[in-house]
Amino acid sequence: MDPSAEDTARIEAAVFRRLRDHLVRVRPDVQNIDLMILAGFCRNCLADWYSEAAAEHGVALDKDQARAIVYGEPFDQWKARHQREATPEQLAAFEDARRRHG
């Protein structure tokens, strides 16, 4: 049985919430640069996509609001508690990934 459009939207929303909650609660230690290196997106990308989807549905959501939704708190607070300075190795891997997948 194929899910209805409404069921699909509910399932996709649940998957997004699970991904967000995993990044917020289980793995806040995972650095955005590592996500970018491995997956080509990070929490900021998710926030941008969230904001863009909101706009497509007529909902105004600025960058800070979208980031607070994705990070589970204001970005500045998350950054102060969890973000570390990127290492030279991370920066090199990021540049390599960007060149390969650019």
From TrEMBL:
Per UniProt, residues of the SMc04008-like domain are: 30-95
List, alphabetically, the InterPro entries matched.
SMc04008-like_domain (IPR023163), SMc04008-like_sf (IPR036810)
Q: What single Pfam family name could you report for this chain, choosing any that match?
A: DUF1244
Q: What is this protein called?
A: DUF1244 domain-containing protein
Q: What organism does this protein naturally occur in?
A: Luteimonas wenzhouensis
